[in-house]
Specification:
Blueprint: H1 8-20, H2 29-42, H3 48-57, H4 59-69, H5 80-100, E1 105-111, H6 117-129, E2 135-142, H7 145-153, E3 155-156, H8 166-172, E4 173-176, E5 179-182, E6 190-194, E7 207-212, H9 221-234, E8 235-243, E9 257-261, E10 266-269
Parallel strand pairs: 1-2, 1-7, 2-6, 7-8
Antiparallel strand pairs: 3-5, 4-5, 8-10, 9-10
Helix pairs in contact: 1-3, 2-4, 3-4, 5-6
Length: about 270
Amino acid sequence: MAVNLNDGFQFLVRKASISSGVDLTGYRDTYLRRRIDLRMKTVGMDNYVAYMKLLDKNPNELTEFINAITVNVTEFMRDKTPFMFFRNEILPDIMERKKKSRSNMVRFWSAACSNGEEPYSIGICSKEVLPADWSISIYATDIDENCLNRASKGMYSKDQLKNLDYPLVQKYFEPSGEDFKVKSMHKLAIRFKKHDLTSEPPVSKHFDAVFCRNVMIYFNEKQKIKMLTDFYNSLSDEGYLIIGKSETLPDEIKGMFALVSVRDKVFKKV
């Protein structure tokens, strides 16, 4: 099939979506074009049609291509104030409501968890606030299997822990060579799972809070609405949604959530 060079980009996106099973059409074109161009430069190519042929020939390059699309720059308690708000305001509120319903179980979802710093941060905050006998369940999902593998190992550099207070590092990590490993990972009850926010339904329901920070900025408006509707449906009544500080809710979604914190972009399910 002959492909016009001007149409090569869109054809590449559609074909890569089919080949990988990852729906790339929900991402903004400008973002996709930038990430794809960088990957093509890495392998020494300068047009989409030639690169598409490489993807056909080399399954490993298809994996690298998908990984290049996803953004995996994270650290523990990145933008520290939302996690302080989670610890000081959200968790006590959840705890009071759970006590009234005679429940001691909390459930959280870290969507697009990257290398695992966010779900472990959620777990650490929860352990610090909630009673010791409470059950904590954290779903941590990402589209990138390499990230999930790294996250499940719980191994981090000193620089990745820079936002954690030293007593927390001592309490929840142990030295492992030049790095640090999460202690007793099973006690944090984190389930790592591959999941595509653009095409798959929510991983579960009845979450007390969903974290999806600095992801929405890469999606088009249609995809944002799909994803946020999924979060709404996955949350318990009065459950919390925490998004990135530079992100905003589309007008079509605003009626589903009440603003709780302007600074930390925290919302509550209506």
